[in-house]
Amino acid sequence: MNEVLFDYTRQDAKGDSCTMHAWAKVPPPLTASQRAERKAHAAALLKAHNAVLVAHYYVDGDLQDLALETGGCVADSLEMARFGRDHASQTLVVAGVRFMGESAKILSPGKRVLMPDLDATCSLDLGCPPDDFAAFCDVHPDRQVVVYANTSAAVKARADWMVTSSCALAIVKHLKDQGQKIIWAPDRHLGGYIQKETGADMLLWNGACIVHDEFRATELELLKAEHPDAMVLVHPESPEAVVKLADVIGSTSQMLSAVINGKASEYIVATDNLIMHRMRQLAPGKTLIEAPTAGNSATCKSCAHCPWMAMNGLDGVIACLEQGQGEIHVEPALGLQAKRCIDRMLDFVAANPSALAPKVQGLVKGIGAA
Length: 370
Ligand code: SF4
Prior knowledge:
Blueprint: H1 20-24, H2 32-48, E1 51-56, H3 61-69, E2 73-75, H4 77-86, E3 91-95, H5 98-107, E4 112-114, H6 123-126, H7 130-138, E5 143-148, H8 153-158, E6 161-163, H9 168-177, E7 181-185, H10 188-198, E8 202-204, H11 217-226, E9 231-234, H12 240-243, E10 248-249, H13 252-261, E11 266-270, H14 275-282, E12 287-290, H15 314-323, H16 332-351
Parallel strand pairs: 1-2, 1-3, 3-4, 5-6, 5-7, 7-8, 9-10, 9-11, 11-12
Helix pairs in contact: 2-3, 2-15, 4-5, 5-16, 9-10, 13-14
Iron/sulfur cluster (SF4) binds near residues 124 and 306.
């Protein structure tokens, strides 16, 4: 069973692209000396404030390097939250998008969580308004509500389960084996992939990631023909026709693992292109090729880079520490409610280690996420 439930628009009320506002806030490029000076300044501030920087694989390479050089981490969204929760620092600087800051706050309600730019969001989060989603769930009370990590605290508070891309299959299969029917939100491509793999009865919300939605199968086939020995890595937020061409379908952590451990010398990568910064560090010598997107004809800018992730910069880290701006707040009762579905997932993967993504040498161990 598969229904289109929500037609997410990519335009605001004035007809402007939803990403235009994000691109307008992307920090301008810095010179080498400016980057070095800002990095040193940010490192000193992190130390002075006893803060730790937790960065996503999709943010600027300087931020990834700064996180690792100062004792923070570069990871997927869930591992970012878990790392922040388990770290001694009482101030977490989260370089990523808003739902990641919220997840960090939900798991560490007593800590101060800062973000370089609070306007950094995600099309999956935007495309799943909590009131609409709750109303839909209310008319299907017989279904378990399973939501992806890329959702607001309010949507998580309405859910029975939160999942990430690498444990979603195992959790949905578990629910199906129990005879449960499912509401899935918000990514339609990931939901469709899981539905096909598990045969579960799922109602799919109609959200999409504007980055992964732009990868194109025809152009990927042409690229594969040019690089017949390349291994093709695809994130399951991509369209079905692209997923079908993959040698490895997986989360960011699983894709990194595939490059590090794979025998091929060339890899075509269908996810945000800034993951290649970490791939190059962890798998030097391997050739990485960006999977093709729709290019200039696309609705989004279609450059395989997330505009909201791109809003994170060194100046934002400095500003949030110096001025205390960009603090994430989650109303405590809502946070407690949202934490239930995250804890349920964490308990499930702890009890079912086979649901975990393969461990990756040199990475923070994790179960993988967006
Ligand atoms: S890359 Fe896609 S899923 Fe990730 S934050 Fe950007 S819009 Fe959301």
